TrEMBL record:
Domain called DUF5107: residue spans: 79-391
A Pfam family assignment: DUF5107
InterPro entries, per the entry: DUF5107 (IPR033396), GH-type_carb-bd (IPR014718), TPR-like_helical_dom_sf (IPR011990)
UniProt superkingdom: Bacteria
Record's protein name: DUF5107 domain-containing protein
């Protein structure tokens, strides 16, 4: 047995001469004194302590809702409503204290930032002195995120779509210590769109270098929802950084599998780069596993691997990391880069001051491509775990488990280098040929210290390299990979509806477009064609019933569900799938037909797939009607039979309290919180403080209301009415309207009227109502007071976002006719006049009035100018309108670029040039090239040679032509992944 190694033996391999100066790095605080002793004893700890980080502050979001329905974002819909949209970032950094939660053990140091979506900001390997996750020493957002600001570095957890809609919003946190010494930092939020619940726990264990992520995704809504989960890991890169995938990976695919290439040697042009031609000139230039060889922004995702690991390795530093997760739930393995060229370097500079370029090594769960969404049933919870750990100087891993990784050299013999994630006394390293051990050594191993074993040249036979612990348990084994080299399939654009032969394929094509949130192709033409051929098709009628229900067209949803049921039950009263009964119950309940809805839910409960959702809906309805015993019996039929659902626990607790079984209710909630420590409604029922996050409070109130606890709901709504207005949005007016609806149900008419009056007087900033509960409350308000201009304005916003645009326009016009002069309302009505009513004069008049109301609002002025462009106003007229407000124009990047174009067109290229060389710009992802095009036009107009733009423009020339987003015929390419225009102005025929 060899002498026990120490960490100091390998610290020298971690030195990287190209790393930022030490003075530029964030200072990590020491653990509190009492926790240092735990770390010294091998334990894991966590504590909360703010960190001061140089920060470029994101601007305040726009007060105007953004209806970006046709915006192509990451290959799927870029809809952002109801999240307020942020359009600018500060040019200068300031020190800012950020909430930070620190995790540490003997091997690893982590920092989690709760105010930025609960991301891991720092992942540091104490054994090698290496940041295995990219450490960004400054918070410098660029306009990359779905709602605007996004930062690079660390690990971002993308859910329910990419990038995480709440990536720049806070999460609630708690620190949990397990009996086994583990420490977990739990982060929790409700997604801004469907209000599903997500909890991710960042976990360290004693004596382990593994970073564990425990995830609980809960669909707390009454509808089936789609989602994806990609953990987005950033790794600092340079010429010697290599991304490694399992050896059975022969091909990688672009977004939506629209293109393929071989891996690691690209065997065809990919993203416009002819890699084989480059390799013919420079050996190895086709190796796309090295950042240095990729000159353009590029994604690639593996296809068809049967392995569980991948990662990145820094050959200069002699360190890297491994990701491991079971392939059965986590098949997604991806690399993204801005590209090693001036274009990519310009983006790097937008996102950091001195930390250089990075790649993203992303791990997808329930998905292997983007966009690629899976389903969550109502009430369903998915639980999974992902693991990362740093590796020392072993090279790129050829096999890995949560216990160990191994790199195998096969030139001139066999050499296996192992790294472990926990101390292993008397571990056995061995190389085996055809079952015979040909080399072996027993050694004490520690994380951070590699151990190698060599064997001589092997002529024939199958060779394996393995590591076992002292009890003979296998830690890791590498065996040669035999993989099918057959080229995988590539996606194709679906035919037009009339060209599709079967009703089934029409239904499935529409389902795909709906499930994958396709930004430019609607499922409706396919489903409508299916019903033209077969009006009674069950699947299509249910798909449309579901769509109608989500849009608040309850009666139409009932009619479609009944058509489906007529065929389903024609010969079989007990159909195999009871979704139709469940959908019918939902719509009937919203229509106030409560007894009929309970009958439908009861029948839906016959089907195990829909029993959990239907049973909960039935129990809620019975509880709300005071049928306590019946409600408890409905819950009894579910307990122990269907999956865990905290909403069901909350309803039972409310019922038990109501019938005098308070101690039982308290124990039930207490036990449930050990599983879901941050569930908002359960914490409220337990008397635990819930943060004053208005959206979360609304969700709790609705849970209480739906279970029949109306007084409790009113109490929580009162808190929501005074909660801070934040960039997450403003629910104060809706909280008042919801309270009025509850008070109406209680027969307290005067109090309800007072709440509606408070709603009208509430701050409307960022008040973008969303969802069916808000819709129902606003409709109730208008039934009570038809002249409520505020309710008309708000319901118009909601309906426009839900696809009911003709009705939205009518509500906005009614609010204006009632005398409202709110700039947001006038602008919204102007959009609808152009897009929906096709009334150009009305659109122009609305914008002119909005400008009068808010003359210093740069977005209103910008949108007015964009409308002028579409209405054919001359460049001279547009410029004349903008010159007097040049200072206001220059506050927006997009407006400034448009102004420069107008100056050039009207012969004032000198002024245009001065603006471009003196004003800093912040590009937005998908909008690259706008500033450079203006720069080139300005140079040409000034008689100057074309040169590279100044750094202040924020971008550089692209070396290669990216895949087109819009075809020559003007149609957006089916596989487009980004599109420059926000497409607020887009002629439409009306409602869905």
């Amino acid at each position: 047995m060899t002498a026990e190694p120490t960490h100091s033996d390998v610290l020298d391999v971690a030195v990287d001469a190209s790393a930022p100066e030490a003075d530029d790095k964030l200072e990590l605080p020491e653990a509190p004194a009492d926790l240092q002793a735990v770390i010294a004893a091998g334990g894991a700890v966590a504590w909360s302590e703010p960190m001061t980080i140089r920060t470029y502050e994101a601007g305040e979001p726009s007060p105007y809702p953004m209806y970006l329905d046709h915006r192509v974002y990451q290959g799927s819909s870029g809809k952002v409503y109801p999240i307020p949209f942020t359009e600018n970032v500060a040019d200068e950094a300031v020190p800012r204290d950020w909430r930070a939660i620190h995790l540490e053990n003997a091997y690893v140091r982590l920092v989690v930032l709760p105010e930025l979506g609960g991301r891991i900001h720092i992942g540091y390997d104490k054994t090698t002195g290496y940041d295995f996750f990219y450490r960004n020493n400054v918070i410098k957002p660029a306009l990359v995120g779905l709602a605007g600001p996004w930062i690079s570095g660390g690990v971002e957890f993308n859910w329910p779509q990419h990038h995480r809609p709440a990536t720049y919003l806070p999460v609630e946190t708690s620190i949990e210590y397990g009996d086994d010494g583990t420490v977990t930092v739990w982060c929790h939020d409700h997604d801004p769109f469907a209000r599903m619940s997500a909890q991710h726990g960042v976990r360290l264990r004693p004596n382990s270098s593994v970073v564990e992520l425990a995830v609980r995704l809960h669909n707390r809504t009454e509808e089936r929802q789609t989602f994806l989960w990609w953990a987005n890991v950033a790794a600092r890169v340079h010429d010697d950084y290599q991304s490694f995938f399992p050896e059975d990976v022969r091909y990688v695919a672009d977004h939506a599998r629209r293109a393929l290439t071989a891996f690691p040697e690209a065997d065809r042009p990919y993203y416009g780069v002819d890699y084989p031609a480059l390799a013919a000139q420079t050996a190895g230039a086709d190796r796309i596993d090295f950042y240095r060889n990729i000159p353009v922004p590029t994604s690639y995702m593996i296809v068809d691997s049967q392995q569980d690991f991948f990662g990145g390795y820094d050959h200069a530093a002699g360190a890297g990391f491994v990701h491991w997760a079971e392939r059965r739930v986590s098949p997604g393995k991806k690399q993204w880069t801005w590209g090693d060229a001036p274009f990519g370097h310009a983006w790097d500079a937008q996102l950091t001051d001195s930390d250089g370029p990075y790649v993203e090594l992303m791990a997808g769960v329930y998905t292997d491509n983007q966009p690629d969404f899976s389903w969550l049933l109502p009430g369903e919870t998915k639980v999974f775990t992902q693991y990362w750990y740093p590796i020392p100087a072993i090279g790129a891993a050829h096999q890995a488990t949560p216990d160990a990784a191994v790199h195998v050299e096969r030139a001139g013999g066999v050499s296996a280098t192992f790294a472990v994630t926990a101390p292993q006394a008397a571990a056995v390293l061995r190389i085996v040929r055809d079952g015979e051990v040909i080399a072996s050594r027993t050694q004490d191993l520690l994380p951070g210290i590699p151990a190698a074993l060599d064997a001589p040249i092997v002529e024939d036979g199958t060779v394996t390299a393995e590591l076992v612990d002292q009890d003979g348990r296998l830690l890791v084994r590498w065996t040669p990979t035999v993989a099918d080299d057959e080229e995988p399939w590539v996606a194709e654009e679906p035919p037009l509806p009339e060209a599709i032969e079967s009703v089934e394929e029409l239904y499935l094509t529409g389902l795909h477009l709906d499930q994958y949130r396709h930004p430019t192709r609607s499922p409706l033409p396919y489903w409508n064609e299916a019903l033209q051929r077969d009006p009674g098709d069950v699947r299509t009628n249910l798909a449309l019933a579901d769509r109608d229900y989500r849009a608040g067209r309850y009666q139409r949803a009932v009619e479609r569900a009944n058509v489906a049921l007529a065929r389903l039950t024609r010969r079989n009263a007990n159909p195999q799938d009871a979704e139709a009964f469940y959908l019918l119950g939902l719509a009937l309940r919203r229509l106030g037909r409560v007894i009929e809805s309970e009958q439908a839910f009861g029948k839906a409960g016959w089907d195990g797939t829909w029993a959990p959702a239907a049973g909960l809906a039935l129990a809620q309805s019975l509880s709300r009607r005071g049928q306590n015993g019946a409600a408890l019996r409905a819950l009894d039929t579910l307990d122990g039979v269907v999956g865990h659902d905290t909403r069901r626990i909350a309803v039972r607790a409310i019922l038990l309290e109501r019938v005098g079984r308070g101690e039982e209710a308290a124990a039930l909630v207490s036990d449930a919180l050990t599983v879901d420590p941050l569930d908002a409604t359960l914490r409220h029922l337990a008397g635990v403080d819930v943060a004053a996050e208005a959206g979360l409070l609304i969700d709790i109130a609705l849970d209480l209301r739906d279970a029949g606890d109306l007084s409790g709901a009113l109490g929580v709504l009162a808190r929501a009415q005074t909660a801070p207005i934040t960039p997450a949005g403003n629910v104060r007016p809706i909280a008042h309207y919801l309270a009025a609806q509850v008070l109406d149900e209680l027969g307290r008419d005067a109090d309800a009227s007072r709440e509606r009056d408070l709603a009208r007087r509430a701050d409307q900033t960022w008040a973008f109502p969303h969802g069916l509960d808000a819709l129902d409350a606003l409709e109730a308000a208008l039934r009570a007071e038809p002249g409520d201009a505020t309710a008309h304005a708000l319901i118009g916003m909601l309906l426009y976002a839900h696809g009911r645009r003709v009705e939205a326009s009518e509500h906005w016009n009614t609010a204006i006719d009632a005398g409202s002069t709110d700039a947001v309302l006038l602008r919204n009505a102007a959009l609808a006049a152009y897009n929906i009513e096709h009334d150009d004069d009305a659109a122009w008049a609305r914008y002119a009035r909005a400008v009068e109301v808010a003359p210093e609002d740069a977005r209103i002025r910008y949108e007015q100018d964009q409308l002028a462009l579409r209405l054919g106003h001359s460049t001279s007229d547009r410029l004349a309108r903008l010159r007097p407000i040049e200072a206001l124009v220059l506050t927006r990047d997009d407006f400034t670029i448009e102004y420069v174009r107008l100056l050039v067109a009207e012969g004032d290229a000198g002024t245009a040039y001065q603006i471009l060389v003196t004003r800093p710009f912040h590009p937005w992802e998908g909008g690259e090239g706008q500033a450079i095009a203006a720069w080139d036009a300005t140079l040409t107009a000034n008689g100057l040679p074309l040169t590279d733009p100044p750094a202040s423009l924020g971008e550089a020339r692209a070396q290669y032509v990216a895949p087109v987003a819009r075809r020559d015929d003007g149609v957006t390419d089916y596989f487009a992944t980004s599109l420059p225009e926000l497409l607020l102005f887009s002629r439409e025929n009306g409602d869905d």
